[in-house]
Write a structure and sequence with these properties.
By secondary structure, this protein is α/β, with parallel strands linked by helices. The chain folds into two domains: 74 residues, GMP Synthetase, Chain A, domain 3 (2-Layer Sandwich); 239 residues, Rossmann fold (3-Layer(aba) Sandwich), CATH 3.40.50.300. The protein is built from nine helices and 15 strands.
Length: 339
């Protein structure tokens, strides 16, 4: 049974006194299937008698059609699509001058690698003495910052029991991987993920920073939406690889920023090519699709990052460092920062 199966089944339920069904009317606002249970949320308005009648008909129809499933039918008095989405508090991370997200609709495109190496590039610009750059690893289920920095570092605690992010290579870093064992799976649902991100943003002592990079998990799930609603972002960077699947998914995922009013700086073509010993470029994963993604979003393709195994270590090659230094400068230019 899929979401589409449920929606097709519910087309048999009419919205009285009309002959049109509740799905066509747009009354079915949410369908979630988990194991042998499904939750359906239906907007019925303020008429309680009508709401009860629709709920009873929906429940009977679903239980008779899918006898092995349990259904939770929730009635909504207000249309959630008409309500205003929560907006970030203006004072969240107020000590951080610029806050930017690194995101992608698809996993496996090297988004975290880009985020970490971009933070390193910013540190080469700003962190000449004290750390003036932050990295917030918002991938709660799959944290990777500690692995990419090559250090298993634990946060400190202030006298009033607030968390101090550890400093690595001129960067203040916070990741769930610093708080739990590597072998411990995080079986957390949406509210717990949102709570962790809120704690990272509001309860950790970041201090005054020039810029913070927020490494978002792939997709457009609870964690991504939570970041957008909790942190007043100055912009987002979209990472993809040069193939049709990744670029199409990246564009789809980027729409969350368009819909929430977050500026998209541009697209990164990651793992764009492999440089051969003679200097020629081998386009292993294809060519041109990242350009198409940038065009679809109406933003520039800011950088093509070649395949380089040193990017996954704590000592990237000088050639890759120069590419990320260039990317960092372009982003600061877009932010209007005078270096």
């Amino acid at each position: 049974m899929t979401k589409e199966d449920i929606l097709n089944t519910l087309r048999a339920v009419k919205y009285p006194p009309y002959s049109k069904d509740i799905v066509s009317f747009g009354m079915v606002k949410y369908v979630k299937i988990e194991d042998s249970r499904a939750e359906i949320r239906i907007f019925t308005g303020g008429d309680e008698n009508l709401a009860k009648k629709i709920a009873l008909e929906v429940t009977k129809l679903l239980e008779s059609t899918y006898s092995n499933f349990t259904f939770d039918v929730i009635l909504l008095r207000e249309d959630p699509s008409k309500s205003e989405a929560p907006k970030p508090k203006a004072d969240t991370l107020s000590g951080v001058k610029y806050k930017m997200a690194v995101a992608s609709g698809k996993g496996g495109v090297g988004k975290s690698t880009v985020a970490v190496n971009l933070a390193r590039a910013f540190a080469r610009i700003f962190s000449l003495g004290d750390a003036r750059v932050g990295l917030m690893d918002c991938d709660i289920h799959g944290p990777s910052a500690g692995i990419l920095f090559g250090e298993k570092t634990f946060p400190g605690v202030t006298e009033d029991q607030k968390i101090l992010p550890p400093e690595i290579s001129g960067i203040k870093v916070m990741s769930m991987g610093m708080l739990v064992d590597d072998s411990q799976p995080l079986l957390w649902r949406g509210p717990m993920v949102t709570g962790a991100i809120r704690q990272f943003a509001e309860e950790i002592v970041w201090g005054n920073l020039d810029i913070m990079v927020l490494d978002l998990p792939p997709g457009t799930g609870d964690a991504v939406l939570s970041v957008v609603q909790i942190v007043p972002l100055d912009g987002a960077l979209i990472v993809t690889t040069p193939n049709a699947l990744a670029s199409t998914t990246a564009v789809r995922g980027a729409h969350i920023f368009e819909k929430t009013g977050v500026r998209i700086f541009g697209v990164i073509d990651n793992m764009a090519y492999f440089e051969m010993p003679d200097g020629t470029k081998e386009f292993v994963f294809g060519e041109g699709h990242s350009d198409a993604a940038a065009s679809a979003l109406g933003v520039p393709l800011l950088e093509r990052i070649p395949m380089d195994k040193t990017l996954h270590t704590d000592s990237p090659s000088q050639k890759s460092e120069k590419i990320f230094d260039s990317l960092a400068s372009k982003i600061l230019d877009l932010l209007g920062h005078n270096t």
